Amino acid sequence: MVRTEHSIVGQVYAAKTDPDAADALIRQYTGFIRSETVKFSHASPENGHEDALSIAMLAFYEAILHYEKSRGAFLPYAGRAIRNRLIDHYRAEKRHGKVISLHASSGGDGERPMEETLPDTRDEIGAYETRTASQQEIREFGEQLGRFGISFSDVADNCPRQERTLSACRRVLDHARARPELLDRLVETGRLPMNELSEGSGIEKKTIERHRKYLVAILLAFTNGYEIIRGHLCQLAPAKGGSGK
Amino acid sequence: MNYLVMETHPAYAVVLDEEGRFLKAANLHYQVGDTVQNIVALQAAKPKAPSFWKPLSGLAALAACFCLIFFGYYRPNFTPYGTLRIQINPDVEMTVSRTDRVLALEGLNEDGEHLIAGYSYQGKNRETAAGELVERAIDMGYLSAGDTVSITVSSSDAAWQAQEEAQVHAQLEERYGESIIIQLGSADIPVDPPPQNDPSKGGNEVVIPVVPPTPTEDDTDYGPNADGVTDYADTDYGPNADGVTDYADTDYGPNADGVTDYDDTDYGPNADGVTDYDDTDYGAYTDGVTDYEDRHDDSDDDDNDDDDDDDDDDDDWDNDDWDNDD
Predict the structure, then answer these.
(1) I need a surface site. Which of A140, B35, B147, B169 has the fewest CB within 10 A?
(2) Closest CA to B218 of B209, B208, B227
(3) Which residues contact A169 (CB under 8 A, 6 or more apart)?
(4) DSSP result, B90-129
(5) Residue B259 pLDDT class (50, 70, 90 cuts)
(6) How far apart, in whole angstroms, are the C-alpha atoms of residue B237 and residue B298?
(7) Which of B11, B19, B23 sits opposite A156 (nearest CB)?
(8) Per-residue pLDDT of chain A (245 residues; tens, 9 = 90+)
(9) Is 0.95 topped by the overall pTM?
């Protein structure tokens, strides 16, 4: 018992920083997460409760990130975290209580779910193509980031949380976009041209250094290619030379 | 807001929002390249809370240590708590800490300066220093047999002062008591033959005449003005009883007058033989004749006992006492 606790504590601490270890740990404990979810919802996750399972897994991941050895055993903590998150989720869902699920039966029409009675306005084939294209582009983007030794998880962890820091990063981005040679240098050397960016944008080097991974990712997104990602970031695009949003 | 799914993991997905933020969110069966609208974002780990307490606790511990050292060691040992003045002819004052450590030594007159010149008091306690100073005074000829050493301890702590005085006195008395006189208290006039007579011993006796106070209110029974005459004289109890009780008309005890009001009884020795039973108003015998006389039948008590009174003539209840009462 003590032995397993020790090993799981080590695993959890490894998973805090390493996304692959986190994935492995979560896969290993999928059964536990499932059982906690079922305990809460009293229904199989496959039976219209898929979201609950996803939320529970997110809660487990949060528990990994927030866990501290000195506060006790991990699994009870994770169980509690999952339950709390599910409670939050269902409370949020309740607010939309009057909205009928599309998956609900339409009643008069017998067995067909309501979803199927709606006219299909989506261009399935177009959507599929778009998705394939964006998948392709994101894969390329990810590979290029990988050459910098950065993963998307790292970028997400490194992303500025405060609005102030985010706008500072945007000013760096705007400056870089105004001078494409800086972007080229980034791609060629694999390093942020720290001094030029700092001087040009008036943002402290320390801030740039702290959010290096995020800046690399967002600057790379504005190099050649990556039309879809850039299109997604349309709110940033027109602010050429400005202060972003 | 639209989010572009960048990467998926079993527990979460990395999504990019339209403002350029990369976020982790619950993976609600997303696929890379999906554009989703509502996400369940990951709650960021709070910045570590103990950063507030940890340095503070260290600081508190440091402060506690400092207080302990200051109040437990430094103050009793290194701050002046009182002074001990030794007056032989040389007048010397030493400043002493609470733990009897000599902190300073000062000569108050020329001879005193001379006495302590070259004397090192550092690290010595009061007992050693006082002894050595007296020793020095003897050696230097300031003090010879029969001379008086007066010791004055002064401090704001009266208890400490008294204790200190007693200790110094006892100590010097023990060592030099045979040859010199150790005197407590100040001899403020450092004259060679000190007038050591206690002024209190030969003082006049002051007699304050005590005048008995005259009573201002006559009729009080209490306090100094009590006239000794209480208005409780008319009591039947205690020493003031006048022997005349108002219970004179009692039938009991020593004051019984022998006349009871029970004379008019029909029973016992005081029976006067006159019963009041004759005067009944009930029944048919209102003529003063009770019908008790004729109740002779024992068991078959009936109403017609007057009618047949001759059938029980032989009954032993049929004595004449009942009849003769009338």
Answers:
(1) A140
(2) B227
(3) A160, A203, A207, A211, A214, A215, A218, B20
(4) SEEEEEEETTSBEEEEEESSHHHHHHHTT---TT-BHHHH
(5) low
(6) 57
(7) B23
(8) 445 556 888 888 888 888 889 999 999 999 999 999 998 888 777 777 778 888 899 999 999 988 888 878 888 999 999 999 999 888 888 887 666 666 666 555 556 666 666 666 667 788 888 888 888 888 888 888 888 888 888 888 888 888 888 888 888 888 888 888 888 888 888 788 888 888 888 888 888 888 888 888 888 888 877 888 888 887 665 444 444 33
(9) no
Q: Determine, for residues A58 and B46 on separate chains, whether the beta-carbon distance falls below 8 Å.
A: no
CA B242, distance to chain mean position in Å, is: 48
Distance CA B73, CA A5 (A): 48
Element (H, E) at B149: strand B148-155
Q: Would the CB atoms of B19 and A235 count as touching at under 8 Å?
A: yes
Chain B contact residues (CB < 8 Å to A): 2, 4, 6-7, 9-12, 14, 16, 18-29, 31-35, 40, 42-46
Which residues are CB-neighbours of B127 under 8 A, at least 6 positions away? B100, B167, B168, B171
The angle subtended at Cα B164 by Cα B160 and Cα B168, nearest 5°, is 180
Which residue out of A134, A139, A152 would a mutagenesis test of the B interface target, given it has the greatest number of B Cβ atoms within 10 Å? A152
Q: For residues A117 and A239, give the distance between their C-alpha atoms in angstroms, rounded to a whole number.
A: 43
SS3 A128: helix
Is the Cβ of A167 closer than 8 Å to some Cβ of chain B?
no
ipTM for this prediction:
0.80
Residue B72 is given by DSSP the state: I
Do strands B12-17 and B3-8 pair parallel, antiparallel, or not at all (unpaired)?
Answer: antiparallel
The continuous run of DSSP H or E covering A206 comes out as helix A205-210
Enumerate the H helices of B141-216 as residue ranges: 158-176
pLDDT band at B61 (very low <50, low <70, confident <90, very high): very high
Q: Pick the residue of A46, A54, A55, A131 with the most B CBs within 10 A to test the interface with B by mutation.
A: A54
CB contact under 8 A, A26 and B28: no
SS3 of residue B137 by DSSP: helix
